[in-house]
Amino acid sequence: MVLIESKRAAITSSKIFINASHNFYISQEQVQTLGDKEFLSASYRRFFRMKQFVSKRQMVKDSYATYLRYKFKIEDYELKRKKVLPDCHSSATDFRTAVRNSLQFMIRAFSFGDEYTAEMVTDSYKCKKILKNLLTVDYHRNRLINRSSKMYAYYRRDFKFLSDDRNYGLRQYEENLMRLNESLGTRL
Amino acid sequence: MSENWRKLFVSRANAGKNTSKKTLKVPEVRSPLLTNFHRWAGKERVLKLTGKEQLDEAFGGNSWNLGNNLLANMLASPMRTDKVSRIKFPRDLLIQLKLVKTGDEKAGKLATLVPQIDLRKGKTSSYVANSLKLFGSKKVSLGNMVPSAVNDSNTVNISLTDIVLNKDLFTERYRTDMLRCIEDCMNQLHIRHYSEVPVTVEDWDVVLTYSRSNENDIEVVRLKQLPGEPTVIILNLKILENDSIGSLVNGKLKNHDTGVVLKFLKDERLIRLVYSLLNFSK
């Protein structure tokens, strides 16, 4: 039952439904026509708008923001991919489609519609769980990084933790995530 | 007096004329307290998509069917702390350890720390990374992996000296137990396969192969030669170096050109076992 309805949202007793608009997704046309810089900033803004849906807790929101900043500004995805899956060929999906797919992943995780089929609801649940798990692992990794100044390069820049034999758990997690990325065409 | 008292009543002489009464209107709410109520409602936010068109625009309007995807299911499982690295990971990527009562064969010991092949409920369990190399290295001691719940009891006091910590249980024994379970599952699969119609390969199917020519153990591949170009997860079992499983995969079980095609929802246990053993032995 809707308690309060306004232009931007409908509030029920347990949830706030924010009405979707073009501010939240990128159309196929935009993917093809926008220039490189515009495309990057447009998608960055849209990813950041998802922050409100991630959690109510400030700490989780912050780790989502840290994750996004790292993803867009620092990470060398191709290097990481080469280290995680050394035997694989180059990625099948191009950069722009991958970014769009990742945004779709986020939208799936946080959205709901009356026309949703049962599979879409399962998708939504799984996507949300995967993202939350990813943020938890990321938070713990940041905790390790903050311990000493050398750790940033080790975990974030050269990905040495993927090749030495000290972080089996983290390595397997990264491998699985990379395989999921390969299968869905995303860049998480 | 008799005439004046009537003047005290309200005159209703004009009542008939004034039919169009003013209807009271509630003024439109302009207060940001209500128009921006979502800002301080303090509830979980959800993105609301209305209509089919918006679904199409937002994410193509189709389902990814992640319920059938092995990797998505592994990564979406609940988080547990890895006892060695102290980082939380999805439970399905880890090995569950439990304390099991020791019989008479070990005098003076109360319990044995045993890795579990299938996840079991109960609170006295701990988790570690799923890797053979981890247990092989000398730095890692099994004492750190004992479930912390053993210290919680007020009545029973179990110290580390009462627990059998045998690394063989985690390396060779675990591997052979896993192999036996996989072989059992495969034999059951073989019995079932007789009555089935030829399979069609769909997205997220798991294909088991046993080929020495292929270097990769786990691959995510798009099969372009098949109708619909499905994306499948190929698990190459050659790393296990087990001839009986090899002959099962290449012989009796083979139900497609690419190998043994399995559906996640039907053969979940076998797929999970094989996947975790491959990750374990790498």
From TrEMBL, chain A:
This is WGS project CCBQ000000000 data, contig 00223. It comes from Kluyveromyces dobzhanskii CBS 2104.
Automatic annotation (TrEMBL), chain B:
It comes from the Eukaryota. Keywords: Mitochondrion. InterPro entries: Rrg8. Its main location: mitochondrion. One of its GO terms (cellular component) is mitochondrion. Pfam families: RRG8 (PF17068). Belongs to the RRG8 family. This is Required for respiratory growth protein 8, mitochondrial.
